[in-house]
Write a structure and sequence with these properties.
By secondary structure, this protein is α/β, with parallel strands linked by helices. The chain is built from eleven helices and 14 strands. It has a six-stranded mixed beta sheet, sandwiched between helices. Strands 2-1-4-5 form a four-stranded antiparallel beta sheet. Strand 4 and strand 5 form a beta hairpin. Helix 3 crosses helix 4. The N terminus is likely disordered.
């Protein structure tokens, strides 16, 4: 008898189509489609003003879309927003807890709001889970960025949500705290929690199971990091030698060159073929340079995507 994979029968945690939101006649989210499976970390990337926060707020019921339809956690994003809010943990860009309360006082307050059963035990367990027990009496105002981040994440987990929506949660946090934060996210995803996280950091993007890149309200690409790099079809080269600053200016004016960036003593240049790069280099008469192929990075792909995007303010 043929076996059926149960995972294929599970509906996506997020399934939206044509999601659109206008402000002042401008589409800040423009017919956006997205599906996210349970237990996945879905990265949301894009420049400031690209529509990431607006999309997150529509998904969790804080904003009503002008167009589009879909479900979040099996609930309609228009008609069943209260049900969505009760099962979502939403971490905003700005720390939103009470700075004149201690860590444990903040968590106890949040637990009361959600009417968490066995409140004190749940608060204690969450403190232990996020490594906050030893600092439980410390005022939130005295915490560093990394510890505030842990406290904010703890407050999102108290009511046992099925979905975490994290809006640039690691902005301004040191690399060690960021890595520890992402380790926590992967532990939560292993336990079945679904995470949608917006970020500007490429190293964080590479730790997501799937990615979506939006610019000026439009979805430009989505898939795993490896898929996005492969689909971009870019070839990237490292150029070393003399006169690199002048060469960079020449290359940036060449229509076929997609990205030009300085990395230490080298230039990293991306194009769709070496022939395009050779044609651009022919404009530079100085032959004291060396060109070598290197792996295309996720950052190369996203810069190339953004350069081809149309500004919705235009």
């Amino acid at each position: 008898m043929m076996q059926v994979d149960d995972k294929k029968l599970v509906a996506p945690i997020i399934d939206v189509r044509g999601l659109t939101k206008h402000y002042a006649g401008r589409a800040v989210v423009d017919h956006f489609d997205m599906q996210v499976e349970q237990g996945r970390i879905y990265g949301f990337l894009g420049p400031n003003g690209s529509g990431k926060t607006t999309t997150i707020r529509m998904l969790c019921g804080l904003l009503t879309p002008d167009e589009g339809e879909g479900t979040c956690l099996g609930y309609d994003i228009r008609r069943e927003t209260q049900n969505i809010k009760r099962q979502v943990g939403y971490m905003t860009q700005k720390f939103g807890l009470y700075e004149d309360l201690s860590i444990v006082e903040n968590l106890d307050f949040i637990a009361r709001i959600y009417q968490v059963p066995n409140r004190q035990a749940k608060v204690a367990a969450t403190l232990e889970q996020l490594g906050l027990t030893s600092r439980r009496t410390q005022l939130a105002a005295s915490l560093s960025g990394g510890w505030k981040q842990r406290l904010a994440l703890a407050s999102c987990l108290l009511h046992d949500p099925k979905l975490l929506l994290l809006d640039e949660p690691t902005a301004g946090v040191d690399p060690k705290a960021r890595r520890e934060f992402w380790d926590h996210l992967h532990e939560l995803a292993e336990g079945g929690l679904t995470v949608l996280v917006s970020t500007h950091y490429m190293d964080e993007a590479e730790r997501c199971h799937s990615l979506a890149y939006i610019s000026y309200g439009r979805l430009l690409a989505q898939g795993s990091a490896n898929q996005l790099i492969a689909d971009a079809g870019l070839q990237t080269y490292s150029i070393t030698g003399h006169g690199l600053a002048a060469l960079a200016n020449v290359l940036r004016t060449h229509e076929g060159i997609r990205t030009v960036a300085s990395f230490g003593a080298a230039l990293h240049v991306s194009a769709h073929s070496k022939a395009i790069l050779d044609a651009a280099l022919a404009l530079h008469s100085d032959n004291r340079i060396a060109v070598a192929p290197i792996a295309t990075s996720l950052e190369d792909v996203f810069i190339a995507l953004m350069q081809g995007a149309k500004d919705n303010y235009a």
